[in-house]
Design brief:
Strand order of the largest sheet: 3-2-1-4-5-7-6
CATH class: Alpha Beta
Radius of gyration: 17 Å
Order of helices and strands: HHHEHEHEHEHEHEE
Structural class: alpha/beta
Number of strands: 7
Shape: globular
CATH superfamily: Vaccinia Virus protein VP39
CATH topology: Rossmann fold
CATH architecture: 3-Layer(aba) Sandwich
Length: 221
């Protein structure tokens, strides 16, 4: 027994992959392709993808928002768990990763569930908020994009989320740098400030999970 989270060694990471993750071949292939790209570290880990799939199943989610798509690993994980009539709205800026995401959505058989918006996420969220039927429509939102805009993404997603829905925010432990955020850069300070804000936010019930680079979960009350 222990009162603290374990340190994940290489051997324990391998054990975790062998016993705790059911990764479809298409996702394994996508990880291999992404590993050859600059910025490959932006892809979420397999165990985080498994955990997010688990959350989508529990929520019986039908409508999902994704802020930051990269090569499509997280969107495939989530879309796989949507019903046939479910929809995931994915937002990202134009770039070389867009075609990879589209290609692997097709390989994974989820392309019909995904609406890809190639523009700034704040603009997409503002467009959604202008439509009354979108307020409280979404079951789940995943934020993994520009760190300094995280607070703005969080506020807008919270309006679009239904009561009981969950916002999941990636990189919230930021390789441990949040511990000394005051002496770090603007991104680190923004993440630290949002962690502390969500901790006190009475609109949600939070849980900061030490998986991969830290995943903040905020369930809308």
């Amino acid at each position: 027994m222990t009162t603290k989270t374990l340190t994940i060694t290489e051997d324990l990471q391998q054990y975790l992959m062998e016993t705790g993750v059911r990764e479809p071949a298409v996702l394994n292939q996508l990880r291999e392709v992404t590993a050859t790209l600059r910025g490959a570290q932006m892809q979420i880990s397999p165990e985080q993808g498994q955990f997010m799939r688990f959350l989508i199943q529990i929520l019986n989610a039908k409508n999902i928002l994704e802020i930051g798509t990269f090569t499509g690993y997280s969107s495939i994980c989530m879309a796989m768990e949507l019903p046939a009539d479910g929809q995931l709205i994915a937002c990202d800026l134009p770039g070389e990763s867009n075609d990879i995401a589209r290609d692997f959505w097709k390989k994974a058989g989820v392309e019909d569930k995904i609406s890809f918006r190639l523009e700034g996420a704040l603009a997409v969220l503002d467009e959604l908020l202008t439509e009354d039927n979108n307020h409280g429509r979404f079951d789940f939102a995943f934020i993994d994009a520009d760190k300094k805009s995280y607070d703005a993404y969080y506020e807008k997603c919270l309006k679009l989320l239904r009561p009981g829905g969950i916002i999941a925010i990636d990189n919230m432990l930021w390789s441990g740098r949040v511990v000394n955020a005051a002496n770090d850069d603007d991104q680190t300070q923004a993440l630290d400030a949002l962690n502390r804000k969500i901790h006190k936010d009475t609109r949600v019930f939070p849980s900061l999970v030490p998986i991969a680079d830290g995943l903040m979960l905020a369930r809308k009350i």
